[in-house]
Amino acid sequence: MELNFPQELKSGIEWNPSRERLIVVSNRLPFVLKRDESTGKLIRKSSAGGLVTAVAPVVVDCGGRWVGWTGDCSLSVDDEIPEASEEDTTPTAGLLKHQVVPVYLNQQQFNSYYNGCCNGTLWPLFHSMSDRAVYSSEYWQDYIQVNQLFADKTLEAMELSKKEGPDIVPLIWIHDYHLTLMPSILRQALSEKNSNALLGFFLHIPFPPWDIFRLLPWDDEILLGLLGCDMIGFHIEDYCINFMDCCHRRLGCRIDRKNLLVEYGNRLVKIAALPIGIPFDRFQRMAEEAPRLVKEKRQKIILGVDRLDYTKGLVHRLKAFERFLEKHPEHIEKVIFIQIAVPSRTDVKEYQELKEEMDQVIGRINGRFSTANWSPIRYIYGCVSQAELAAYYRDAFIAMVTPLRDGMNLVAKEFVACQIEEPGVLILSPFAGAGETMQEALLINPYKIDDVAELICSALEMPRDEREVRMKNLRRREKVNNVDAWAQAFLKTIRSTTSMDPESDSKKGSCLMSSAMDDYDEYLSKYVGNAEKLALLLDYDGTLAPLAPHPDLAILPNETRKILQRLSNCPDVYVSIISNRSVDNVKKMVGIENITYAGKNGLEILHPDGTKFVYPLPVEYEDKVRCLLRKLQEEVCHDGAWVEHKGLLLTYHYSETVMHLRTGLIKRARELIESAGLVCTTAYCALEAKPPSQWNKGQAALYILRTAFGVDWEERIRIVYAGDDFTDEAAIKALKGLAATFRVTSTLAVKTAADRRLANNDSVLRMLKWIESHMTKRKPRLTSRSSSSVLEAMDEVHQAPSSPSSA
Ligand code: ADQ
Fold first, then answer.
1. Nearest CA residue ID for atom 28, ligand 1
2. Rounded mean pLDDT of 674-686?
């Protein structure tokens, strides 16, 4: 069916209907549901925000879907979503009921997820108002649960979309801080189903700097959640940089600041600054048509329009206006301050307190300055129609948009769109995203009450030609960068990520993967510097050698072997390989003589001089292990699963077992291990069984360092540790603060204490290359040698191979 909408309700975006479907996910559906008193049926009421105006036509055009909460906790699955009424001409009118995927929340979920976590924790923290944030694990659990609920509904929507064509790739566009965990939940589900989709996210509020963000007890979870996306959009570059910085510092991801990329596992996530715009022409038209609301022509209007929120700086603004009246009594009766405040989050205590404070401050100012025929402040507390807003915007002489912090702020943009008559002045806070681009506004720090007061005075006195030129430029920019341009830019950017596969040839020259050497330069050169010695402690499977279906097939790449060989010959480098294989086996696989090998996760250590350390495990476990081995062989060693016997340790391998049989086998194997009184740990496609002991790779790493370098090793030695699994995490933790640690990981939701992440064993190889290059190029150390021996040392260096290839 061809849907016929007015031109302004078409998206103007080119779609390939046989390949693409847009699925938008936002906290709320793009319309409000109300119950018709007479019929008892639900009806749609418009919710004409900028986002809906821009995005709904795109969803309609491509036959996509919209997932969102119904906005009413009393509704349930029995309440059918109505079609739009025939008179409906809003942007969502073309959205048929089968395109609407409702999420139902009960009152408890709403209180805890929405009022609690979203608005009590994330909202203040993301606005850098950390003292207002509450951290409740109860709220957080509900936040996780609701994100899971949204993900389930989105998966349903994707399934429906995929049924419409075999080649359809859904493009999921998730909005805002309510849904930060959803992307990785979706990514995980997609990989389990072997299904593909493009995942994009847009954050409408600021992303705070690292030293604020880290206060959140679940900071890593939010970052990991968002990194499930192919692309993440923010309003301005500062927020992009903050986000990337947090990924780098909290998760150890490598980042490319220039191209705005975050490397996460074996994927690159595109970060983009996409400042939102407004439906400029619509606001202009409304301003042209709106009747005059304020009759007093003599008085210049100073206007504030905000949701009643503590981030918007309303009280500071009123105080600045009060100071202005104090300092400039000549303006008394000549100006009027109109503050329109829409009630917001009224069931949250902080918002109720703000309302009370507003009433008090306004009462005080009006009481102090009113005359017989004039009151300085007119306060409208309520929702005003957009047509009425347009009239206020048009007739205002000054708009005061002075938030303490704001992602973008649409009011500033709506004001300039409606300034079609006598040009006015925009006073704008630099702490709003809008302050980045709307440079012709008068920018002022809202905390500087005296300065704001003076600025009001200068704005009132600004000559017409200056007002005109400033307003003309502001309008021109907002007209071009309107909300449609924003939606198009988002879609264009996310589409471009399909060519971001790091392995694809087209990207090799430009992506993070190839800039690895510079990246290590920044991080490791400071740490390693000119230290006396560098100790490299490296895991084998999955770190140096790629993982394979059978341990015998996990072969060390030739290039890695050669570089390890050269490093082991380098006098300032000490190499040790710590593996969960037996020590003889790992030595055989690596095949280099003069290095230290640790096997069985450090229970046995073979030094280069041939001496061996074996951690004493309780011998009484011998019988238990033998008995467990028999049971495992009898019960769970079938369909490709087998058990490896390493003395007092057993490894149960299931990499060759088909997926659907694994769960049952793993469960039973774990039961057998635990009931035998052994400790069961997880490795790559394997379970490890060992007698209980405190000894792990961490203890082994410390033992190796102590043995090789003496008790005061930490003062002289720099250490690099790299490992890929759970057993390495023990070493990473033990060496925290003492070493540069790397976790090799390509899967989602891996938590690690490591300083940095590496995508795969190729990245490990690149790191080794960097180390070789650094160690061979660095300046000679000034030790306690005499000056002549320093010269000798320099001589040695000059004769030493100058590049890895010549070594
Ligand atoms: P908000 O915090 O809601 O949005 P803002 O960008 O100012 O902030 O948008 C407010 C909207 O509400 C405007 O469209 C305005 O017209 C309307 N409005 C305000 N007062 C009103 C009233 N009394 N009656 C009717 N309508 C009223 C979040 C972020 C912002 C970001 C937007 C969009 O906090 O920083 O700009 O999303 O991404």
1. 204
2. 89
For ligand 1, mutation pick of 411, 429, 431, 438 (most atoms within 8 Å of CB): 411
413 CA to centre of own chain? 27
pLDDT digits (tens, 9 = 90+) for 505-536: 434 433 454 445 666 777 788 888 888 899 99
Q: What is the pLDDT of residue 798?
A: 34
What is the Å distance from ligand 1's center to 408 Cα?
Answer: 9
Of the candidates 385, 435, 413, the one whose C-alpha atom is nearest the C-alpha of residue 54 is 413
Which of 757, 723, 763 is closest to 227 using CA atoms? 757
The phi and psi torsions of 396 (rounded to 5 degrees) equal -75, 145
Question: How far apart are the C-alpha atoms of 344 and 350, rounded to whole Å?
Answer: 11
Q: Is the CB of 340 under 6 A from ligand 1?
A: yes
Q: In this structure, are strands 255-256 and 261-264 parallel, antiparallel, or unpaired?
A: antiparallel
pLDDT at 805: 30
Residue 50's pLDDT band, with cuts at 50, 70 and 90, is low
What is the predicted pLDDT for the residue at 10? 53
**How are beta strands 649-653 and 679-683 bridged, if at all?**
unpaired
Q: Which residue has the tokens 């209907």?
A: 17
Report d(CA 260, CA 510) in Å as an integer. Answer: 11
Could you identify the residue written with the tokens 């009806």?
Answer: 43
Q: Give the mean model confidence (pLDDT) for residues 235-261.
A: 93
What share of residues in the chain are helix, strand, coil (percent, to 5)?
45, 20, 35
Confidence tier at 3 by pLDDT (50, 70, 90):
very low
Give me the active site residues, please: 539
Can you tell me the distance from the alpha carbon of 487 to that of 492, in angstroms, rounded to the nearest whole number? 9
| Å from CA of 416 to ligand 1 middle | 15
342 C-alpha to ligand 1 centroid (Å): 9
Cα–Cα distance for residue pair 426/135, rounded to 1 Å: 37
Q: Ligand 1: distance of its center to the CA of 307 in Å?
A: 6
**Beta-carbon count within 10 A of 359 CB:** 12
| Nearest residue by C-alpha to atom 38 in ligand 1 | 204
Quick check: pTM over 0.85? no
Q: H-helix or E-strand containing 273?
A: strand 267-273
Query: Count of alpha carbons within 13 Å of 465, Cβ hemisphere only?
Result: 0
The tokens of 780 are what? 């000679």
Q: Write a three-state SS string for 465-507.
A: HHHHHHHHHHHHHHHHCCHHHHHHHHHHHHHHHHHCCCCCHHH
Q: Which of 307, 340, 431, 486 to mutate to test the pocket of ligand 1 (most atoms within 8 A of CB)?
A: 307
Q: Which residues of 26-52 are buried (b: 16+ CB within 10 A; e: fewer)?
A: bbbbbbebeeeeeeeebbbebbbbbbb
| Residue whose token pair is 């980045």 | 436
Local structure of residue 534 (DSSP, 8 states) = E
Residue 51 has pLDDT above 90, yes or no: no
What tens digit of pLDDT does each residue of 165-205 get?
A: 888 889 999 999 999 999 999 998 998 888 889 999 999 99
Instruction: Check pocket membership of 273 for ligand 1, CB cut-off 6 A.
Output: no
Whole-number Å distance, alpha carbon 243 to ligand 1 midpoint, is: 23
The verdict on the CB of residue 204 being under 6 Å from ligand 1 is: yes
Measured distance CA(485)–CA(497) in Å, rounded: 19
Among 305, 339, 401, say which to mutate for ligand 1: greatest number of ligand atoms within 8 Å of CB.
305
Least confident of 47-51, 245-249, 262-266: 47-51
Residue reference for tokens 């957080």:
140
Contact 794, 785 (CB under 8 A): no
